């Protein structure tokens, strides 16, 4: 593949990045071609040594989204980073998606439990309105105790959600580095 074909494919693969970021990346690869030309290599040899433009774009996108999620850790950024890392290889589909689904399920179940406990007094009041003859003080006091427990669970889930998010981001960074070329011991 010649230089023009390489740049067209790379530019097309990086379409989700801003034009300024794409321009910087393409300038970097322009320098690779200039250095290779000075060394006496042909455009085909240089593009072969750089690798597939699609694979390069996947690595750059993963790095971009991982940097973005480290700056602002929102659910959308985490999902984009996860999909970018999964895109680095089919093996990552199992290695990244499996733990992600398990962690999200546990976090979701914790939040549902906490919210359900918190709203339990409302359910007692609804029961009182619908069936006035069945009211018992035990139900009311038990639901108030559940509300306290629900508040504690919600506070715990807040910290757990933050910890799991940060841990998963570190795992995505580790996985991306591993896929890109192995880990280097420093």
UniProtKB/TrEMBL annotation:
Pfam families: HAAS. The chain crosses the membrane at residues 81-102, 108-130, 137-160. The keyword Membrane applies. Keywords: Membrane, Transmembrane, Transmembrane helix. It comes from the Bacteria. This is DUF1700 domain-containing protein.
